[in-house]
Fold this sequence. Notes:
The complex is a heterotrimer. Chain A is of the alpha/beta class. Chain A has helices at 17-30, 104-108, 123-131, 137-148, 153-167, 173-191, and strands at residues 4-12, 34-40, 49-57, 72-75, 95-99, 117-121. Chain A has one domain (4-191): Pyruvate-ferredoxin oxidoreductase, PFOR, domain III (Pyruvate-ferredoxin Oxidoreductase, domain 3). The two termini of chain A are 19 Å apart. In chain C, helix 10 links the parallel strand 10 and strand 11. In chain C, helix 1 (9-20) runs parallel beside helix 7 (140-154), helix 3 runs parallel beside helix 5 and helix 7 (140-154) packs across helix 9. The longest helix of chain C has 33 residues, at 215-247. Classes of the chains: A alpha/beta, B alpha+beta, C alpha/beta.
Amino acid sequence: MKNTVEIRWHGRGGQGAKTAALLLADVAFKTGKHVQGFPEYGPERMGAPITAYNRISDDEITVHSNIYEPDYVVVVDETLLDSIDVTKGLKEDGAVIVNTKHTKDEIMRHLNGYKGAVYTVDARDISMKTLGKNYPNSPMLAATVAVSGVMGEEEFLSEMESSFQHKFAKKPEVIDGNMQALRLAFDIIKKH
Amino acid sequence: MAIHDKINEKSPWTDITEGNKIYEAATSRDFCTGEWRTSTPIWDDEKCRQCLLCAPVCPDSSIPVRKGERTDFDYKHCKGCGICAKVCPFGAIHMKEGKNEKIF
Amino acid sequence: MAIRERLSGNEAVAYAIKQINPDVMPAFPITPSTEIPQYMANYIANGEIDTEFIHVESEHSAMSATVGASAAGARAVTATSSCGMALMWEELYVAASNRLPIVLALVNRALSGPININADHSDSMGARDSGWIQIYAESNQEVYDNYIQAFPIAENKNVHLPVMVCQDGFITSHGVENIMLIEDDKVKEFVGEYKPEHYLLNADERIAIGPYAVSNYYMETKRGQRQAMLDARAVILEVAEKFEKMTGRKYGFFEEYRMDDAEYAIVIIGSAAGTCKASIEHIRNTTGKKVGLIKVRVFRPFPEEEIARALANVKAVAIMDRSEMFAGTSGPLGAEVRAAMYQAHAKAEVVNYFYGLGGRDITVSDFERVYENLEKMAETHTVIGMYDYIGLRK
């Protein structure tokens, strides 16, 4: 892993891309990293395209600008692919991770000739199977950790489990499903 | 010692209290607004029926009421506006030209 | 042991307020500072603190109630942004002239119009003449640290002035970063118990606060306020020194970053200073060019002599403003720094840049171009003009 990893998230307001970025910052923080998690804010509301960012580093981070040349791009909603140039500035030795049921080849046609790695994760399918609802956040977060290697799988899963136990203290029945969603997404990336 | 003896228009800035705070209460009593008067109300206690219409309309609280009855004007603070004379139904207050130096 | 955490800037301020547990907090929500009263309401509802939270119908009332509470003898705080502070305008001056040690958490946002919700210093810069002490932060850590230091500064008997603790809207207020928190007991001890000397609810001393001051008194009163602002300098440094002993984190009127041998300097306020630091490291590591930064922390009282001294040996300076003032010369920081340098007979070439208005992003490479321009200016002794823009479409 490089000293500083920069990640850009694309989603729609209300889908949790910002929450996913903050969760990633959280879990990386717990493994001892310096982190930043921040959304790009405007007056946008539910359904509008939104961008969120992460910087994760071993050293203190002082930069306070948005990220224009990310190492990784995460697309939480594939319907954005036709309206937003999601791979703009994305490093060729980096990767884009797309939440979709389509194949990698099908998705690549929408990526403006991006030459780096492309990963597809059907986060909706994983979420429906494990939680019975469409919460693409957890699987996309796991996929992002798996692709970027900002932390190891076991470290990630154990940190997430403890934070789920805290977050869902009043409904522990959803913890297993969430953990299962993370594992499935991790496996998909490993098989890519 | 009244506050204006301590702080007045000759005081240098270093003598002005922090934020103009006044460390006393009711200091407006020391401010003799009666000095502004050019016309003076005179009270005739023979004609006065103690209806007390005058006291509440006085803008300067210069008609002291003791035990339910008005007493003579507080000329130290009366500005001579004449509202009391206007409101009196019994002609017990009339306005006299001048400050009425004898009183002030 | 300090507590390693990750918080947004708004969370950091709310956490500091919780640790201090002030007596009264009247507040009204406005983006991007809304989260501060929101977190506070939670703390209070959960019984973690016993601050009296006053729900008001506007910011005009928020500051009025804060002024009233402070005059009554309470440790009183509030939070706002942008147009919210504009609505407090009248009471800002009242708070300062009444010498009330109020602490206001300001999350900087552009003033309308055009309407915009993003980072810009037009709100606090507009209030720079109100008589408030203004302290700015680069990061979440700094806004937390500044907030805690604000109380012993404001409440010092040689000062008794309100303090505005400023941070950049969204950039730090909504960005999560690593932060070192101080233990509750240490914060409480550092800030101390509030013991006002003269206050309205003191049954043993009858006083009046905020009397009318006719022309015969107004000017003397203003001179007194100026003295408090001048005396605040020493107090700000004393408090910073005490804070450094507690945390190891050093603060002053401004931070000098790689200025020891700097030939080209940028003077800036707020979160963009961190981005500038990254550009300095990159330039020094790749070209060896001697570039440095002065990050202004305390804008009121303005440290003119100290800044002029810090810039005495540079060849060229770029002063960067995140707010407009429509003067022919520069923005507000530019005007102050230029005046300080003129008075000190400084030799450096100076240019003023407007950047980041209404949240326009500024990047590491933008700063690299500024340093390139400074080098050109120093070589040719020609300045592009009194001011220029970063990131303006031309």
